[in-house]
Amino acid sequence: MRDVLAVGNALVDVVADVDDAWLAANDVMKGVMTLVDEARAEALYARVGPAVEVSGGSAANTAAGLASLGGKAGFVGKVRDDQLGKIFRHDLTAQGVQFNTSAAKTGPATGRCLSVVTPDAQRSMNTFLGACENLTDEDIKDGEISQYRMVYLEGYPFDLPKPREALAKTMTLAKSHGVQVALTLSDSWLIARHTPLFRDYLMMGIDVLFANEQELMTLFPAADVQKAVASARRHARLVVCTQSEKGAIVSAAEETLHSPAERVSHVVDTTGAGDMFAAGFLFGLCQNMPLPKAARVGHLCAGHIIQHHGARPKMALSALLAV
Amino acid sequence: MRDVLAVGNALVDVVADVDDAWLAANDVMKGVMTLVDEARAEALYARVGPAVEVSGGSAANTAAGLASLGGKAGFVGKVRDDQLGKIFRHDLTAQGVQFNTSAAKTGPATGRCLSVVTPDAQRSMNTFLGACENLTDEDIKDGEISQYRMVYLEGYPFDLPKPREALAKTMTLAKSHGVQVALTLSDSWLIARHTPLFRDYLMMGIDVLFANEQELMTLFPAADVQKAVASARRHARLVVCTQSEKGAIVSAAEETLHSPAERVSHVVDTTGAGDMFAAGFLFGLCQNMPLPKAARVGHLCAGHIIQHHGARPKMALSALLAV
Description:
The structure is a homodimer.
Chain A (H helix, E strand, L loop, with lengths): L1 E6 L3 E7 L2 H6 L7 E3 L2 H10 L4 E4 L2 H11 L4 E4 L6 H12 L3 E2 L11 E7 L5 E6 L13 H4 L2 E7 L6 H17 L2 E5 L3 H6 L1 H10 L1 E7 H7 L5 H9 L2 E7 L5 E5 L3 E4 L13 H14 L4 H15 L12 H4 L2
Parallel strand pairs in A: 1-5, 1-9, 2-7, 3-8, 5-6, 9-10, 10-11, 11-12
Antiparallel strand pairs in A: 2-4, 7-8, 12-13, 13-14
């Protein structure tokens, strides 16, 4: 039995340092993911300094983190048969993630996310989805999903018609095989764009729901985050609400607990913190760890990733488990 | 008057961590640059873990360093009109380097250097030259060279027939305009492959010769490095022999001095140390600094670059000058 099959957008991150004045001058909203077309992507890229390219994508990062912890992870997502697509495929498979989705032979180039990092370590993402738009339900294979204990869906593909269908098929097939379904809400603006769709998914029943405070309060408007968590719990067996340096709330039928974050002396870049938390937490669940321990593994992984640029692990995360 | 026009191979570095066992298992020679064909490049890439892509190329790194110090730098080198070629062009121009060489529309892809870094911070480079082979003497423009105080040639293009002609034309035009000529020997195995060619260049008269100890002793076999420096001085007005953590020997008609290296507490990756030393030293010369001060700027720049992965500066090097 394999552990987690992640489904999401296949993106290469283009990481550059900027300051707050740059964000203002270029109308980039801080801390969120904004979709951009190719022209805007090129224009923004032309205005940043030297950059570094590193494979990314939210669910793909989580798959990479899981594999780095020693879990059996897979990924489904669409690149093109171009140089960035080859880089994305290499980095994922070299990490030990199974990635069987074929590359598109026509259509837009591999998707890129221009991730600009400000001195406060916040990342603001400008995503040109490119080839991601060509993920279809034909890429979702019954025989692949049935090998896994769990599927993990990111919300970002909701922005694209065909990938949205692919997510729906993943959910349907997973339920038909008794494979658990985990979902991350991904981004508060994304939720605002697709609130009914997110509600539909939750109505079908989610096993594990990941969200940060802002995302959860967008989908479940409430006076405080505890109330939003309680609302979410009506649709999800397990709700995990991450709260940056404050830690995370983990709420299940039997208990609701608060798990403190890992203390980090120097935060460099928060890109991938949520993705790595999910990797550690899901790894813990697959290992049948009790919830507080699974959350602790999540925090350890998130604590590692925010101490360097980029959203993929720079060491075997399994080494964190020995502590 | 502009400062330095650098001519060399246009490469994107693919940086990955490996251990010594990996080098042995894959027949990669430590600490040097080995040329590989596309098949070997692909095979080695398939065997490394997740990597990071960052623009490189020896002379291009020096141009980037010079621009980062506030100098007016240019670069001549050949990429293809592909994704990696666009990344290379962006990173150089975003650093403020003038890069007017057109991209090849046909032929091999943009060159890549798989730079594997061992825990001792040594880098071993496996270069697939790709589009670099299509730099020709038509890319060397009289009107461009005459704008500069100095041209800076790396030795690597000696491995390719057409780029070798391009270097020869650069040297000839520079001399006809009274533009100074700086040359770096680049790599001891390269020198072994092309000893007569390097000797020919030196016979034409070089203004500034850069080499590390091993490179200098390969071209000028001698009992000790001081004797090799003295031999080199017969052909070069100024000889700069870098000696890693021991510093550098700077030898001119009026004086020969030893300049100590910058103390660095934690060396991460020595890639680009020589390139950044050259950037700092040449910047100093262009600013008419006395030789010890120019060498000191070189050491400060090299000390910065070895504290992170990759060969391009991660901050404005001009900030180092304030110290």
